[in-house]
Amino acid sequence: MGTILKIALRNLTQHKVKTLIVGALITLGITLTFIGNSMFESAALGIKRSYSENFAGDVMIQAASDKKFSMFGSEEVSFGGNDEPTPVIQKYDEVLSLVRALPQLSAFTSQVSGFAFINLEEKGQAFNLLFGIEPESYYKTFQSIRILEGKLLQNGENGIMMSRKRLDQIAKDNKAVIKLGDEVLLNAFSKRGLKVRAVKLVGIYEYIVPTTALEVVSFIDVQTLRALNAMTVGTKDEVKVDASTQALLNSDSEDFFSEGTITTAPSRGKVDLEHVLGDTSLRNSLQTIDNGSWHNLLVRLKPGSDVEGTIKALNETFTSSQLPVKAVGWKIAAGTTAALSDVAQIIFNIVIIILAVVAVIIIINTLVISVMERTSEIGTMRALGAQKYFIRRLSSPKPCCWRGSSD
User: Fold this and answer.
1) Buried b or exposed e, range 27-41, using 16+ CB within 10 angstroms
2) Looking at the whole model, is its pTM more than 0.85?
3) What share of the chain has pLDDT > 70, as a percent?
């Protein structure tokens, strides 16, 4: 082993340039791996702290669905409308009672998410994400904003709070100034049509922890956002109809306009149009805004709690209780922002692996060249009668004589 080591060291000293190149590649790869992953881990920790402490909590409970939803709503939202409306939490009271029973519970609040365009009349429209909140519980759960002008939105109050940076951006892009106390006209587009609501700007705030990705988010009273999202009783509950009505709904146009179905009705004089549709009480009730609909239940745990264990235990409880909800962690709550961080780290590690493969190829090539450079020397000594063991012991510290041999 000592002889081999000495041969290796001698090769390194005899090929200093190659040794420096190989050493630099190895050092660069190790340095990039440690520094790069440290930076990504620090960024991930910062994102986690920002979201869990200020926006998403440690655990987010949402309706069970095959599609992916974050705290901002569907990950498939487009500017043309809500392609996939966020499902509401069914049996909310039962879910809430299970959350309240958690021994590691610190605080909780419920949230509705959505988006709308601020109508600036001739100056265009400005896109805005919206969080519909229950103010009292939200402020107890998260202390993420600082009021600059106006006041915090209160329970039962219709209004909106917008960030200072968002208002400045709207002023820059649309040349429109929105001031405290102004009426903000919101337009929301979805499969259920266009919804328009006007709310008063009651507060202007800034984030205590600067979070660029969330500057576009505004806080609004939950009932207004439910109306913009068309979260009516009819969209939540299944309507039961009798057999005759179901048969009528299943009929096609030919059944209505076939021969013998069209008759001439006798003139009845003045018709009461208000009652021509019959009893509309069911329709009216189904169009009522659902006061109990929530998209997410955000939970903060006590410091030191086992978050992953809590999520697993909650999901097991939900399954055994046959509740159509699931608990997820902060990464799913954060949505694309956290995913981009993970994707960037994966790409970085792939690049490092490619560089490592290239470095290994260069190292192997260097060693092969070193051996090839001594081929003539080794061949000459063998031709003069040097035995194999002598060749292997060229770097032996003890002088060695050799005798010619036919070997």
Assistant:
1) eebeeebeebeeebe
2) no
3) 72
